[in-house]
From TrEMBL:
<comment type="similarity">
    <text>Belongs to the peptidase S54 family.</text>
</comment>
<feature type="transmembrane region" description="Helical">
    <location>
        <begin position="96"/>
        <end position="118"/>
    </location>
</feature>
<feature type="transmembrane region" description="Helical">
    <location>
        <begin position="56"/>
        <end position="76"/>
    </location>
</feature>
<keyword id="KW-1133">Transmembrane helix</keyword>
<feature type="transmembrane region" description="Helical">
    <location>
        <begin position="156"/>
        <end position="174"/>
    </location>
</feature>
<keyword id="KW-0472">Membrane</keyword>
<dbReference type="InterPro" id="IPR035952">
    <property type="entry name" value="Rhomboid-like_sf"/>
</dbReference>
<feature type="transmembrane region" description="Helical">
    <location>
        <begin position="130"/>
        <end position="150"/>
    </location>
</feature>
<protein>
    <recommendedName>
        <fullName>Peptidase S54 rhomboid domain-containing protein</fullName>
    </recommendedName>
</protein>
<dbReference type="GO" id="GO:0004252">
    <property type="term" value="F:serine-type endopeptidase activity"/>
</dbReference>
<dbReference type="GO" id="GO:0016020">
    <property type="term" value="C:membrane"/>
</dbReference>
<dbReference type="Pfam" id="PF01694">
    <property type="entry name" value="Rhomboid"/>
</dbReference>
<dbReference type="InterPro" id="IPR022764">
    <property type="entry name" value="Peptidase_S54_rhomboid_dom"/>
</dbReference>
<keyword id="KW-0812">Transmembrane</keyword>
<feature type="domain" description="Peptidase S54 rhomboid">
    <location>
        <begin position="92"/>
        <end position="240"/>
    </location>
</feature>
Length: 261
């Protein structure tokens, strides 16, 4: 079996950056045509056959759930929604999860929705719908647990900021390469994400009024965000140690074919 026959299994994602082909001596060749321009390489400019095989649905359900809870809480003033907040004085177990879908005001929500869409979509495209939901819940709830352990019992926690930082960390790690351009891109984007999410979180901390003023106001931001990012990193490292069945099957198939030659 020649090298050209195995390139689909060894390089499964080369179709994403098409047009590329593998030359006879193992050299990548770039074929340009009239339709090859910057716009065609963007997601919106790609034809259907060049896009990823996974259909992105999960992130939109997460966004709709956040929006629906906000509307029920702030527009319809439903008292039942307040029971979803994380009250540090006497929390219920489910509040560590439900608080990640609640927001203090529109500025807090809109900023989180923007970054949830960007990084949640990246995670879902790479790892799938189930992995997205698990990542969102574990990073968001984990950030709330750390905040509950560290912050005063008078505090109240709401918001998806911990999940945002967790999804950001996961999306960076699953797409990370040691290309200096990628590293520079991550540094620039990371600084922007941190600044914007911190601004939104500053607005959300006014929810508890005087109970969260002063030093506690700063602590809730740093603790929730940092812990969410660290949990995201831990998830990627943990999953990375689990062997992939599909990867093992592909490698076995290649070895079997080479043996028959």
């Amino acid at each position: 079996m020649g090298l050209a026959g195995t390139r689909s299994s060894i390089f499964p994602k080369l179709n994403i950056i098409a047009p590329l082909s593998l030359g006879p001596h193992g050299v990548f060749l770039c074929r340009m045509n009239k339709r090859s321009d910057m716009i065609s390489e963007l997601e919106l400019g790609r034809p259907e056959e060049r896009r990823g095989h996974r259909r992105v649905n999960g992130i939109f359900w997460i966004l709709l759930l956040n929006l629906g809870i906000y509307v029920a809480d702030h527009l319809f003033q439903m008292r039942e929604i307040k029971a979803l907040y994380l009250y540090h004085s006497w929390p219920s177990w489910y509040q560590f999860v439900t608080a990640t879908f609640c927001h203090a005001n529109w500025n807090h929500l809109s900023s989180n929705l923007f970054f949830l869409y960007i990084f949640g979509k990246l995670v879902e495209e790479e790892e799938g719908n189930f992995a997205l939901w698990i990542s969102y819940i574990l990073t968001g709830a984990g950030a709330n647990v750390v905040s509950w352990l560290v912050l005063p019992r008078a505090a109240v926690s709401v918001g998806a900021s911990g999940a945002v930082f967790g999804l950001f960390a996961i999306s960076v790690l699953v797409k990370m390469s040691w290309d200096w351009r990628k590293i520079l891109e991550v540094l620039i984007l990371g600084q922007f994400v941190i600044d914007k999410v911190m601004e939104a979180a500053q607005a959300s901390t006014g929810l508890a009024g005087p109970l969260m003023r002063g030093s506690a106001l700063q602590n809730v931001n740093h603790i929730a965000h940092l812990s969410g990012a660290l949990i995201g990193v831990a998830l990627v490292l943990l999953i990375g140690k689990i062997p992939s069945p599909s990867a093992g099957e592909d490698l076995k198939t290649i070895k079997d074919k080479d043996t028959r030659k």
